[in-house]
Design a protein that fits this description.
By secondary structure, the chain is mainly beta. The protein is 0% helix and 51% strand. The chain has no helices and 28 strands. The chain has strands at 31-38, 45-51, 56-61, 64-69, 74-79, 85-91, 96-101, 106-111, 117-122, 127-133, 138-143, 148-153, 159-164, 169-175, 180-185, 190-195, 200-206, 213-219, 224-229, 233-238, 244-249, 254-260, 265-270, 274-280, 286-293, 300-303, 310-314, 344-350. Strands 1-28-27-26 form a four-stranded antiparallel beta sheet, with no helix packed on it.
């Protein structure tokens, strides 16, 4: 996932000023805007993750992680000392969290109670996505510039394997019962399957008609993957065999995808200021439920499966930046200037 530093294409022709930007109200559908959690401070942002056990939301921002109480929707702490942090994986049963620090090519091991860094593990270049695999109690750091995954023991920090990957890795998800980890290979437009016992790549599945995927979500019960692609598509794939089951159009600049097992909704958050909500209908077809208007640049998200709330990182901008003429769908747009101290988390929920 790309760390977000400035901004993205406008979804509507609206001028943005130096004051606070309220998100555009969502279209008809189950989800509506609930509130904005002010965070402030400077720096880019990337992944968000929810610890449903501790009821905490971890938001990567600059060189730290901001900790939010999801029952109060309030900032309750932070984890500093994380240069270029991309993601944060939690292991509640171990009382630990794991941060991928892209600028120093290390993963930090964090005590979830004290929010103190316990140690750091060397990874490949620019670790980006990171996840905890509970079956073997291992952590996988996916190295964006290293085209590899570093696997280390969650308790000791000892590196157990370095897995070569075919391209630049993005989002990853784990299916413990299947003994598999699924990872998007952005530069090869493939879904890579890793066997958690052998630490080997056992399959590479094309995602066509999708291209250059970033976001990835997994419906464990029905063995479906939801893949966010740079050519403005959400692709649905069978996680048992790699068969593409369908796709729907989404906004431009997708980064994250999510799936809520309680509602059956799949999500794609996009930098153009939209969040797609989809669902598999009675015929097995992936169908659009709602296109929620968020705010420009709000392309990273996570959800709380207990409350079904969706959280998106965002900021306000001082100036517009028009897209380049005849820009390729999914191309990186120009970057307008962020209003200092305007970083925030947007909260959406079911009406």
């Amino acid at each position: 996932m790309k760390i977000l530093r400035l901004g993205f294409v406008l979804v509507v022709a609206v001028c943005f000023f130096s004051g606070s930007q309220a998100p555009v109200q969502p279209n008809d559908g189950p989800y509506k805007f609930l509130k904005e959690i002010a965070v402030g401070a400077e720096g880019g942002w990337d992944y968000l993750s929810v610890d449903d056990v501790a009821r905490k939301l971890y938001v990567t921002h600059g060189t730290k992680i901001v900790v939010i109480d999801v029952d109060k929707d309030a900032v309750v702490g932070e984890i500093p000392g994380l240069p270029g942090v991309h993601g944060f994986a939690v292991a509640p049963e171990l009382g630990r969290g794991f941060a991928s620090n892209g600028q120093e090519s290390k993963a930090a091991v964090v005590d979830l109670k004290t929010l103190q860094i316990l140690s750091k593990v060397d990874t490949g270049l620019n670790p980006d996505a990171i996840l905890f695999e509970p079956g073997h109690k291992e952590v996988y750091a996916f190295n964006g510039r290293g085209n590899s995954a570093t696997v280390f023991d969650a308790a000791s920090g000892a590196v157990r394997a370095t897995i070569p990957l075919p391209g630049k890795p993005e989002f990853a998800r784990v299916d413990v019962s299947a003994g598999r980890i699924y990872n998007n290979s952005e530069t090869t437009s493939e879904l890579v399957v890793i066997d958690t016992a052998s630490h080997q790549v056992v399959a590479k599945w094309p995602i066509a008609p999708g291209e250059e995927a970033s976001g990835l979500a997994l419906d464990l019960a029905h063995h479906r993957l939801f893949i966010g692609c740079s050519n403005n598509l959400m692709v649905m794939m069978d996680s048992t065999n790699g068969k593409v089951l369908g796709s729907i159009p989404i906004g431009q600049g997708v980064d994250a995808n999510g799936f809520d097992p309680g509602t059956g909704y799949a999500f794609a958050s996009c930098g153009d200021g939209t969040m797609t909500v989809a669902r598999v209908d009675d015929t097995g077809k992936l169908a659009l439920v709602q296109t929620v208007a968020t705010t420009r640049g709000a392309r990273t998200m996570t959800l709380d499966p207990r409350t079904h709330k969706v959280y998106l990182s965002a900021a306000s901008y001082e100036t517009e930046a028009a897209p380049a003429p005849e820009a390729k769908p999914g191309a990186k747009p120009p970057r307008p200037k962020v209003v200092p101290g305007s970083f925030k988390v947007l909260v959406y929920g079911i009406k």
